[in-house]
Amino acid sequence: MLDVSTQSEILQVESLTQRFPIETNALGRPTRWLHAVENVSFTLASGETLGIVGESGCGKSTLARSILQLYTPTSGHVRFDGSDLGSASARDMRELRKQMQIVLQDPFGALNPRRSVGSSIADGLGGGNIRARVGELLERVGLRAEDYARYPHEFSGGQRQRICIARALAPQPRLLVADEAVSALDVSVQAQILNLLSQLRADFGLSFLFISHNLSVVRAFCDRVAVMYLGRIVEIGPTEKLFTDPAHPYTRALMSAVPVPDPTRRHQHVPLRGELPSPLYPPAGCAFRTRCLYAADACSQVVPRLSTQGDGREVACIRLNDVDRGPVWTQSKESSLC
Amino acid sequence: MPTGEDASRIDPSVPVLSVRDLSVRYDLEDGQIQAVVEVSFDLEPGETFAIVGESGSGKSTLALSLLGMAPVTAGDIRLDGQSIAALGRAALSKIRGHRIAMIFQEPMTSLNPVLTVGYQLTEAIRLHTSLGRREATQHAVLMLSKVGISDAERRLRQYPHELSGGMRQRVMIAMALSCNPAVLVADEPTTALDVTVQAQILDLIADLQRDLGTAVVLITHDIGVVAETADRIAVMYAGRIVEEAPTAQLFAHPRHPYTQGLLRSVPRVDVPRTDEPLPSMSGSAPSMRHVPAGCPFRDRCDQVHDRCSETPPLVRIGTDSVRCWLHA
After folding, report:
1. Is A268 within 8 Å of chain B by CB?
2. What is the pTM of this model?
């Protein structure tokens, strides 16, 4: 695991906001907006892995795409290795993109079925000796150099995800964005791919944005974790701090809902009220207040800001001092695996 | 009681569902898929029996066959002692939804998008009871409130797309349980849902099960979900049940090398990260078109030996049964 304090920052995200117009008036001016990402700020140290967790529609995938400038952010800044991506020229951006690669959830949709996997991977390589270098990449991800000429349908889901990883590695990136990269895989294969990513992270000093709804995988893979709810980060900090003592009421509810694969362990679900509000009409003030057990009048007045807690984490909750804290999983007497 | 007719005769509780040596095969233009191979199990009234396995293990086909919706080639399924294999189409429709009901992973595709929730819910009730339209609507309102949907009268007038995923799954559960079936087959009922909604739906199923005495066959790939909900677990691999045991027993002492590997490779939310690689199994499950002869797991097994080229028998050890030569 990484000592963050001595590392330089590879990615700085400042007040990033991404809204999408969903209705326009007769003049083409937007009249309604979907608030996908609101005022998100964080930094990623070189070689660090930040997990971004949250439920469907919380904006975690949009955040990744805004950072990569696949969407043009509505406002805010993204700096990659010191360069402001929003103001980079098209030529600079082409070079910068090579250093930021993405691996997606569905390895079936992400590969062109009519091209050999070798030629898909070769797209990311410049210079000569392409075939040998693709062969090396294939071997790096646990396939064989001879697989160059084969087509995606000849591979299993796990193997296809290895091909997508090889393709992402081809331009020698420094940042890898994994958007639910192991979510479609069976558990026995998921562990293989996570081990591969860990190995590559160590060998190439890769930084990761690891987007996942699977908190178990995030705990096993990430140095820090950001929890998103309706487009905002509600809590961010070192993985073990968040998992052993989740602070924000939403983080607590989310973690306590994860089923533990051990029948000797019992835990209490932290209940949530009602349903997830539509991101078209996010509640005023704290977006979580409509479902929060601690909600007070003041919560509807102001949007809570992330405030530093002294243990390296930041939490956005004005009622934090009243939250009933502690681990959400109780230790069992006879747990065999701990 | 998975093996032997003797065991079920000794047992005082009569199984509500009894499956014996069930095989299901899909005939395709270019070959056959043996999706389920000689599966046997009993379901006691009110219990939750989980069937876990990875993609392609045959668990969903097994679920469909329990409602007479898969091409069964051998074996027998008895519901309340009555063989459903012998039933014609009309008799099958009578028990489906009435004695045995099913919910699926994706509630959006299971609900008709152009009919209101109320229409679909009352249709199911009227089909299986003698209730008139008004009583059926009253019963539908009652069922919706039972599954935690407030403002039920308004919801009945809504279309499926107006509901959230969790709400739609609640409607499916209300529909499945509206005629108080003895058996509910739930095929990945929470896989498409977020974890907080999943927790609510699993709690709901458990509550209703307690109230109504429904027995549940839970089909899932999620080891965490079975640990929290199941009374007994069967592990499927390549169409076969390779191990069956009470939940606590299976987690404490998994016998089959596949079960052991599966339980080891599940990342745990309650365990801190280590610098060690996650335990994993080599390879992936065989294609159902080309299942190797003998034990189908032998290519991936770390305890493989000569005997494994022969098909291992299902062996009973106390409350457990396992299909592996290490225990034969």
Report:
1. no
2. 0.90
